[in-house]
Amino acid sequence: MSTKRRSNGTNKGKSVKKSKEGEVAVISSDLKDDVIRNGMKDAWRKKTSFSQGGVQLDCDPFPHCMIRNFVQNESFVENLRDELLHLNFHSKSNDLYKFQQSDDLKKRKEHHISEIRSLLFHQFRSWLSEVLGVDLEPTVDISCAKYEHTDTLLCHDDELEGRRVAFILYLVTPWDLSDGGTLDLYNTNEHYEPVSIVKSLLPSWNTLLFFEVSPVSFHQVSEVLTDEKCRLSLSGWFHGLSLQRPLRYTEPGAPRHTHVLADETLLFEWVNETYMDPLYQAQVQQEFEDTSEIRLPNFLQEEKYTQVIEALRLAEIQWERTGPPNKRCYARAQLQNLPSCLKECWDLLMSEAFFLLLSNLTGLSLHALAAGDEESDSEGQEGPTDGQEGQRDGQEGPSGTGDGEDNRNHRDGQGPSSTSSSTEKTPKGPPVCVGELRRWSHGDYTLLHDSVKREFALDLLLHLGCTGWKAEFGGFTSYIAHDEDEELLTVYPEENSLALVYRDKETLKFIKHINHNSVQENEHAAFTHFYDFSFTYYE
Ligand SMILES: O=C(O)CCC(=O)C(=O)O
Ligand SMILES: [Fe+2]
């Protein structure tokens, strides 16, 4: 990446510096034009489209507006870009994003940065306030972001108390669709949940985009695919009275099942006999009780493992895409027409004998015959990885977290079940489980979110078809402590290895976005996706 973009080779030393420092940012003349201002006002009120000069408003799927040549003087923008590139950048990565963020720009004294800050939060804010017919506070909320190869910011709505209008000023060299990094806008369903991308905007030099932050303003920065260019931008929010937010929709939890009565021979046919030895089980249990996690390599017997892999690769499995995209994005096998061998593996994981095996391996009370069942009480157990209290979820695990540090997480922590359930005791019924057979490939992920209950649970992951998979591709399961950025445990895909993790109510998990490296660095097409059986057991 060159920082010398369109630099003027004829200017020299001191004189350049001096003229740079005196350089004033001049806002696009379109924003001083009464016809445009009135046209915009009218269109915004009616939620219709408007286009004149460099200003273009579109209200589908939610109101957003592009202003081309936002700063009139080109050289100012070039110098601003150079100034920004000299800042310190910090790598940011969690469930929702991977990118680099600059030092805080609120108080930076550099000339071009202070100039653009003042232009945005004085001149432009007053134009915006008038056009939108809303009071916008002088609060300065701005940072600089750098997205490079495999960086992304997944589906989110920007909603956070006080944010009223989001803006992004793009400072990119010519950008193509094939470079990735588009700003994708989602439509929403009757529950205000994002459904699919209906518009993709290409970033372009000196173009400012703004949109209203609302319950339906779902968007993402798609993964940057170019490894030659950097997607540089200034972005932030104008603050004002937030729009009314409807109650967040709570998904119905996937139904949980008690064990199925299956012939015990299933267990002996399928599971590596090492794990059937009571002495070995006792050792595993000891380790699990100490660490709340364990990996059991070569879990399926060789013959069964080979059959499963063949079925996964060759058989006709009906995969359905999961959503909504602000929560999850991967393929899930439909159970109705699962090939018999996979159905058998599924039955194994749900069988009474398997519940007993898990009890013996973990010391949890998943079966009446498990030792110590009477006195064991999940509420009293040390949590998996951090020993804190409280998490319960109804679906695949995660619950919301705040990211107070930089406000990029865009979750409000106000899900209907986010606080109340953490101290409640769950009435005990028989042990139950819920499971999925999933396929993971480029672009897939799960995100932390607020709308799930928190509870103690045993997670089981059996990875298949992932030989050659690298951590840098993503696709690993990350366990984190609620309300903290601290990573507690990472489960990397390992071939035919069973991972067991006992989590408490405060432990959340997500699957890291699978990036472009998974396609680019894999010579073997077979490695571009992998599978897992993902089950959760509740005492
Ligand atoms: O850079 C963009 O196009 C959008 C950035 C964004 O959505 C955010 O920072 O919240
Ligand atoms: Fe955003």
TrEMBL record:
Cofactor(s) annotated in UniProt: L-ascorbate
CC per GO annotation: cytoplasm; nucleus
Biased composition (Low complexity): 415-424
Listed Gene3D superfamilies: q2cbj1_9rhob like domain
Keyword Magnesium in annotation: no
Major location (coarse): cytoplasm
Keywords per UniProt: Cytoplasm, Dioxygenase, Iron, Metal-binding, Nucleus, Oxidoreductase, Vitamin C
Record GO biological process: regulation of translational termination
Reactions performed catalytically: [ribosomal protein uS12]-L-proline + 2-oxoglutarate + O2 = [ribosomal protein uS12]-(3S)-3-hydroxy-L-proline + succinate + CO2
GO molecular function: iron ion binding; L-ascorbic acid binding; peptidyl-proline dioxygenase activity
Protein's UniProt name: Prolyl 3-hydroxylase OGFOD1
